[in-house]
Amino acid sequence: MKARASRRVGRNAGSSKSMIRNLGRIPREVREDPVGWCVVAVLALLVVIALAKPARSHSWYDPDCCSDRDCEPASEIAFVASDPKAVPVMVVTTSFGTKPVTPQTKIRESRDSRLHACIYQEKLICLYLPPSN
Fold first, then answer.
1. Secondary structure of residue 67 in the 3-state scheme
2. What burial class does residue 97 get, using C-beta atoms within 10 Å of its C-beta: 0-12 exposed, 13-18 middle, 19+ buried?
3. Do residues 80 and 39 share a domain?
4. Claim to verify: residue 46 and residue 78 sit in the same structural domain
5. 100 and 57 in contact (C-beta within 8 Å)?
């Protein structure tokens, strides 16, 4: 009878509640080893850096436009004129902002059928127009 009782105690010691409590305890060897902590910290930092890379939406954007970080398909296009007699200006909107096309804007051909814009530091750097047929 005593053997069964000790087995039950042993099973309870390995229960999920006690395992969760033991996860929070750090062994003395780890607490007292500064090199071990440094290794853990460096590994954690490498994981964070690896996961923090900016998402690349397209790899075909030209490096002189924005290097894949500030280019994306335009969400809205409008033609705006300051008065009825003025020539309308094309205005492009992305998640990076709304900017007009200026003479300094580089015009490129898009590799898909969509209009893309590269807005960097409050300027429309490049505009990728769909190929004309």
1. coil
2. middle
3. no
4. no
5. no
Going by the DSSP 8-state scheme, the letter that residue 133 receives in this structure is: -
Whether this model's pTM surpasses 0.70? no
In a domain, 65, yes or no: no
93 and 43 within one domain: no
Q: Which residues contact 124 (CB under 8 A, 6 or more apart)?
A: 92, 99, 100, 101, 102, 105, 117, 118
Shared-domain flag, residues 75 and 125: yes
Q: Which two tokens stand for residue 66?
A: 């924005």
Please give the residue range of the domain that contains residue 113.
71-129
| 81 belongs to a structural domain | yes
* Cα 110–chain centre separation: 23
Number of domains the chain is built from: 2
The amino acid sitting at 86 is: A
Q: What tens digit of pLDDT does each residue of 1-60 get? A: 444 444 444 444 455 565 555 545 666 666 666 666 666 666 666 666 655 544 444 567
Residues found in the chain: 133
